[in-house]
Amino acid sequence: MASVKERTLTSVPMEPAAWAPGHPKSWGQEKAKIQLERGASTLAMSPDGKILAVGISKNVHIYNVETHERVEVLKRHRKEVSAVRFAPRMVRNRYVLISEGEGIEGTEDSEESKDSEDSDDTDPRTIFQWELAENGRLVAREKPVDVEALTAKTLRPLQSQLTADHAWDPAERALDILHQHVKSALRYAINLHERDKFSIHGRLAPFGSPPFSPDGQTMIYLDQEASYINLWDVESRSLQHQLRGHTDAIAWVGMSPDSTLVASIAWDGTARIWNASSGVCLHVLALGGKLWGGAFSPDGRYLAISQEEPNPCIHIYDIGAQELVSCFTGFPTGILCLAWSPDGKLLAGECLGSGLYLWDPSTGVERMYDYMRRTRTDVREVQFADGGQKLIFQTREGTVEGYDVEKNLRQQFTRGAEKGMVKCPGADMVVSGDSRRLVVLDEDGVLRLWDL
């Protein structure tokens, strides 16, 4: 095995980034906005940029991007929706959307649920897979159950017999209670049916883990304890493989650009690479310490791995050669999330409490060093746009920044100084696939649409 090249990140003098024309921009200058209900927490955009999904309280609201009309509300979660994500490609001319939350709506309503073996006071994470038509409306796989009508039909012969043969009064309270209990039991049975048929018992992986394969055919999720990986076939809605071997919590998982490999990174100090088709583990990298994030290079040749302990660093692993080829040091804390530029010439990382790092993975030379350290200490949602020309990220108080790597220009979309600057853990943002539009879910409950 070739020796690993250890490099400390170095910075080179650069001209300060200039403002792009028309920037900075603040609330009121957006192209359009959509006022939401209270409790909005997470956001996703369809691959063609036409549909938005917003987690609001325990439901998922679907909006048309052009008309700003709400076209659907998806109801199944019992508690707040924590994540919504679209598959990168449509299936049979339908959008595939997943939502994650705690519990299932309705399972707490019945007395039967309290005594059932299926009851669970802990409200485990649950994922639902939805199919939406091109207009954003839900495509139902089953005919909806009319609970009121079916309850009445079921009880009609029983009530007739009780009144005719046993002298019950049709208006007495006992029959009303019977009606309510049967209706409640039916609702609970429907929710159990939907849970078993349509829900997925598990959680999405953290720290920037993509929940879908690039071809959109596989969804990746973890068990409740984040100890093993599940590969779910989106088309057949069936579990294909469970990838077991990690002995501590899995921090990141993702699939290679050609969707043939799965990489997983865990707190047990190992990174593993698996065959996505067979589920067989191909490589085990015993790096030790605590590992956080990862990312495949755009050509699928390399895997970048973030290590926090014993010393913060980024390893670059050559998958074909099965060897570590470089290790970058000089980070004050661990890198939580990583992103490669589409051409593979730049690597970006979110450093916990220390801002954003951007460097050339072949040399270790940093880009925009002064710009990143001068004003920003904590960032998230790092992604490249416009073919890699721009780097988009969000700060913890909700401001979105754009940096044109080639032109050294800076964009900013913010609430404005007169609004005050606060921590904004609920903010979220998405960039359209064509890099023309930015949508920000701001802490005031408004979706703001900006031109990039």
UniProtKB/TrEMBL annotation:
Keyword set, alphabetical order: Repeat, WD repeat
Feature: compositional bias, Acidic residues: 102-121
Region Disordered: start-end pairs: 1-28, 102-124
InterPro entries: WD40/YVTN_repeat-like_dom_sf, WD40_repeat_CS, WD40_repeat_dom_sf, WD40_rpt
Name of this protein: WD40 repeat-like protein
PROSITE patterns with a match to the protein in the record: WD_REPEATS_1, WD_REPEATS_2, WD_REPEATS_REGION
Database matches in PANTHER family: TRANSCRIPTION INITIATION FACTOR TFIID (PTHR19879), TRANSCRIPTION INITIATION FACTOR TFIID SUBUNIT 5 (PTHR19879:SF9)
